[in-house]
Amino acid sequence: MDYKRIVKEQENVKEQENAKEQENAKEQDTMKGRENAKEQDSMKEQENAREQDTMKMQSMEERPGAAEERIVMRHVSKYYGKKQALKNVSLTIDKGMFGLLGRNGAGKTTLMKILATLHGKQSGSVTVCGIPIEEAKAVREIIGYLPQDFSMYPSMTVREALDYLGVLSEMPKEKRRARIDSLLKKVHLSDERHKKIRSLSGGMKRRLGIAQALLHDPRVLIVDEPTAGLDPEERIRFRNLLCEVAEERIVILSTHIVGDIEAACENLAILNEGEILWQGTLDEILLNAAGKVWRAEISGGELARVKKKYIVTGMLKQGNHMTVRFLSEAPPDIAGAVQDEANCEDAYLYCLYQSGCKVMGGEAAGGEESCF
Question: Which pTM does this prediction carry?
Fold first, then answer.
């Protein structure tokens, strides 16, 4: 009896131990299952992360430099033989309208051609939307360029010329057709689409030049002296067109016409003899000339003396008298002279003078008799 009880107790103990082992095994299996699930989730997250990274890389390959919408030039120099056209130029150009202002021969076209990968540089670095300028093919894919001397096939119609350029750019036919229609509407040439290029006015040809530069939807548009020779109405229309285009991309307007910069650009740089004299906003350069502009009424006989002593920025003849605007850092010795508000032309000439340039707004060039 005792034996049977002892055996039964042992069997009960063994059953309990077995049950406990099974329970432990189940818990281990559950834990293992959870660990496997976690591992699978982790692997899935890693796989998703890799896919996202791959998609990002593909996006970057499709649109190089997408993370950066700016042009950066650092210490760029350019020589033509022994003549130095650009001297240690550093510029940063962000999205929107940027004006490059300077005299004829200042080096503006050289700088534009370097950015368009048409000319090389001797030293320094240039990146266009994150792409080094040495990668010319990639840069050209994101740049539109309207040169100073723009010409197209005179015997072609407006639409034929754009279509031909689209074919050369390997644009698909349907995309080409839609893009050309859209651009002709944007540049107000829809009614002239069937006209021969030789019959277009100067302003129409410049607008056609913008259309061809925008054909492949570039991220950067470079226009070199675009309003030279245009009548006042066409100049205003062209500037307004550039401002519209600049809402979506970087637009660089290179010109020697101060009025174009004042009317269209918030940011600008002044280039003279290959050197950057100024870079900043329009408001900043106007502030730099504040208090330096004066206005006075003088007789015709006084004009020669005023021009010899001051940089004259404007004259208006009224009978035997005239009103003159001029620059002076100190109160001038002209009766009745009053300070006047600086405009962009005043600020430009004052910047040239500050930088040591010879300024011939009147006859003053900083000599002993000059007010400066």
Answer: 0.75
CA dist., res. 41 & res. 109, Å (int): 59
Cα separation, 225 vs 263, whole angstroms: 15
Q: Which H, E and C letters describe 355-370, residue by residue?
A: CCCCCCCCCCCCCCCC
**Cα-to-chain-centroid distance, residue 168:** 26
Residues contacting residue 246 through CB under 8 Å, at least 6 positions apart: 95, 96, 97, 221
Task: Fold for 289-354, please state it.
Answer: Alpha-Beta Plaits (3.30.70)
**319 Rama sector, left if φ>0, alpha if ψ -120 to 50, beta otherwise:** left
Both tokens of 308, joined, read 């010899």
List the one residue out of 277, 286, 349 whose CA is nearest residue 91: 277
Nearest alpha carbon to residue 99 among 292, 207, 242, 248: 242
pLDDT along the chain (372 residues), means of 10: 45 59 66 61 56 44 57 96 95 95 93 95 96 95 89 90 89 91 91 94 89 92 86 87 90 92 93 95 95 92 89 88 92 92 94 87 43 44
- CATH 3.40.50.300 residue ranges of the chain are 70-281
Cβ pair 288, 351 in contact under 8 A: yes
DSSP string spanning 199-238? GS-HHHHHHHHHHHHTTT--SEEEEESTTTT--HHHHHHH
Domain 70-281 bears CATH identifier 2.40.50.100:
no
